[in-house]
Each structure stands twice: as C-alpha cells, then as structure tokens.
Automatic annotation (TrEMBL):
The keyword Transcription regulation applies. CDD domains: IHF_B (cd13836). Heterodimer of an alpha and a beta chain. Gene3D superfamilies: IHF-like DNA-binding proteins. InterPro entries: Hist_DNA-bd, Histone-like_DNA-bd_CS, IHF-like_DNA-bd_dom_sf, IHF_beta. It comes from the Bacteria. This is Integration host factor subunit beta. HAMAP family: IHF_beta. It comes from Parvularcula lutaonensis.
Length: 109
C-alpha cells in the first residue's frame, strides 16, 4: 500500500470528510513521527509497533557493480519494530508453505 491508497481508503471510510482533509491529517501524522525521530525520540503506536533511530558506525563497504571498496560514513537510520498484536494478526493470516500472508478473513482493528 502506498500513501495515496491509504488516503483514498480513509476518505472512503469517512465520507463526511473531504479527501484533502484526510490527506492533510495523514501528512500531519507522518510529519509528527518524522519530527520525533529527528529529535531522537521514540514513537510507539500501541498494537502496531514502535519507531526509533539507531546509530550505524562508519565502515568500509563494497560497490556491488565494480567491486571497489567505499568508505561509508556513520549515520543514523530509522528502525521499526512491529508490535505483538500486528505480528499475531499477520501470523493468523499466514498459510504455511506460501511466501506471503493470505487474506483468510477481513483484517480490521
């Protein structure tokens, strides 16, 4: 799912709201999460998961095309850890032997 699909679904489920208002709300939520991560805070959405930032040390990498070694600078990277409820919902819809969860039932919070 991409952001525009999320906005469309939310707009359809809330016909009393204009699509532009739904888009603005989604953007505000994402912007607040990004701002919190930029400030070094952790964002936890109960039942869904937690966003945090992790430090990656400088290292020597390799260019996969040429094989040359490349110096990779230290950086901070966003990290997401799924919550227990979302993991259980995904595993409840997972059919052994398949590559991805199958939609056995309508998944709703």
């Amino acid at each position: 799912m991409i952001k525009s699909e999320l906005i469309q679904i939310l707009a359809e489920e809330n016909p009393h709201l204009f699509a532009k208002d739904v888009e603005r709300m989604v953007n505000v939520v994402f912007d607040e999460i990004a701002d919190a991560l930029c400030n070094g805070d952790r964002v936890e959405l109960r039942g869904f998961g937690a966003f945090s930032v992790r430090h990656r040390d400088a290292r020597v990498g390799r260019n996969p095309r040429t094989g040359d070694t490349v110096e990779v600078e230290e950086k901070w990277a966003p990290f997401f850890k799924a919550g227990k409820e979302i993991r259980e919902r995904i595993n409840a819809d997972y059919e052994p032997g398949s590559d991805a969860p199958t939609k056995k039932r309508a998944v709703r919070a």
